[in-house]
Amino acid sequence: QVHLVESGGGLVQAGGSLRVSCAASGRAFSDYNVGWFRQAPGKGRESVAAINWNGSDSYYADSVKGRFNISRDNAKNTVYLQMDSLKPEDTGVYYCAAKYYRDRYFLLRVSGYEYWGQGTQVTVSS
After folding, report:
1. Which of the chain's ends, N or C, has fewer CB atoms near its CB within 10 Å?
2. What CA–CA distance (Å, rounded) separates 77 from 51?
3. pLDDT 10s per residue in the chain (126 long)?
4. How many Cβ atoms from other residues are within 10 Å of residue 85's Cβ?
């Protein structure tokens, strides 16, 4: 089992930046692929970014390419999402999720992730 806790959300004006973090505990963190997902009120959960077990490959939704960057520090059991040039449409609850490294395909798909955090709220004002 892996327990995930998100932090770093908050209120920011359009054009600003935030960095959210996902801290993991339990089994070896390097055994897992990790994704970031978000959900706005009244909308379904959508993919944001993902990173493989050792950080050699990363993936981004078209809506955030060039603005967001995902990274991980396995020594600290933490995955980060740096968000720059934020827009009001980026508002939502941001979740991190993990799945075992053998499940290495389609990392941007919501389905297939077994472990989820509670989420952290990100609000971008215009």
Report:
1. N
2. 13
3. 899 999 999 999 999 999 999 999 987 888 999 999 999 989 999 999 999 999 999 999 999 999 999 999 989 999 999 999 999 999 999 999 999 988 888 899 999 899 999 999 999 999
4. 13
C-alpha span between 3 and 15 (Å, rounded): 32
pLDDT at 124: 98
Nearest to 119 by CA among 19, 12, 21: 21
Task: Give exposure, 53-63, as e/b (b: 16+ Cβ within 10 Å).
Answer: beeeeebbbee
Q: Tokens in use for 102?
A: 């053998």
Residue 119 phi/psi, 5-degree rounding, is 95, 155
Give pLDDT, residue 29. Answer: 86
CA angle at 45 for the pair 109 and 21, rounded to the nearest 5°? 85
> For tokens 């944001």, what's the residue?
48
Tokens standing for 5?
């806790």
In the chain, the amino acid numbered 86 is L
